[in-house]
Amino acid sequence: MRILQRESLSQFIPSFLFAVTVLAFVLLMDRLFLLADLLVRKGVSAKVVGEIAFLSIPFVISISAPLGSLIGGVVTFGRMAQDNEITAIKAAGIPTWRIFSPVLMLTIVVVPLMGLFNGFILPESQHQVRNLLTDIARKKPAVRIQERVFMDDFPGYMVYIGALDERRSTIANIIIFEKQHGKKTPSFITAPRGAISYTPDGKYMILTLSDGEIHEITNNGNYRRLTFETHIINLVVDDELIRRGRDYRGGDELLLFQLINQLKEKNQEIKEMSAELSSITAEDFQGAKETAQFRKEELTVRLRYKNLEKARLLTELHKRLSIAFSILFFLLFGAPLGILLRRGGIGTGFIVGLIFFAIYYVLLIGGENFAESGRLSPFLGMWLPNILLTLPVVEFSGRALFEFSPAQWIFSRVIKRR
Length: 418
What we know:
With 418 residues, the chain is α+β, with helices and mostly antiparallel strands. 66% of the residues lie in helices and 14% in strands. The chain has helices at 2-42, 46-82, 85-91, 96-136, 239-247, 256-279, 289-341, 346-372, 378-388, 390-402, 406-417, and strands spanning 157-165, 170-178, 187-198, 204-217, 223-236.
């Protein structure tokens, strides 16, 4: 028995490592090709290109490891089934799951290690890559802006940008709070789209907003709303903004403990803003109902975006956990499928793996978009691929490892009740 278990383990590990290496190489080349235009135009040295490639390795490993688990399972146990080893094992009275158990235990050990990898090594490498690319593209507009973050680096303004296209230097879903001297309540500007440019000396960043609105309280305490087709704002840019941009970490760059701390901070901010919103009355503004209503609208807008920031952080947390767990999930799909197909060639493994991974990845990206926009809970959005693909995994595992079909058992129970 132990000889057979060691045999299955010794065949799985090389197949797994080979699949991860090939997939990582392919994904790395794809990432470098996307950077080729920027690297050539900026005249970046081969040393820097090599540094980008090295720092990109953790990202491609996080993607290729689950797929490598699936391919390794298909190749290892598909070959054993094709060579009638599985048939001989069953004839000897040894259940198939006994041969599969050491591979399963190895994968269970890898899952928490992959969780730590996704929680610490991957975000740190992403942060280093982002800083390096910022250095390379320093003179290109829009590289100093962070998406979905309230930025107070500009004197007199607090800026929020919902979406940023660095290639075209365009922005969307813009909110700007203008802190005017002598006014208690700042006016705020909203626009669905706009563009970013810089003055030749780099001292000012020019925001050109389109089809937006300006909300403000006049000197006599009345509320006023203005609409515009084009509105231009010049923001002062200094060296301090660049340094802060290097220290800033996006959601995918936060270490695990940083991500958890930010979630706690966002929960506290949302709690305080909700309490303030519910307590606002006209008496707080000397009976000015319009001013109180304006303040409520301002807090409502900020609260909505704070909730979206919280959803984005929760989505990132569940995404890291879901991808780490998918190594086990993919093995439970690939190994039984290889036994049922009775084919263990590396080509078969890659074809099956890529098809299954394509379905999984489409569901993952779709769930991520829905979760970050607030239309779906972060937990459900990131775990939805695993949930939807559980039924085929359970069916294949039952048939291949236990010679039992859960689907047929459930169907027979339903027929008997009728």
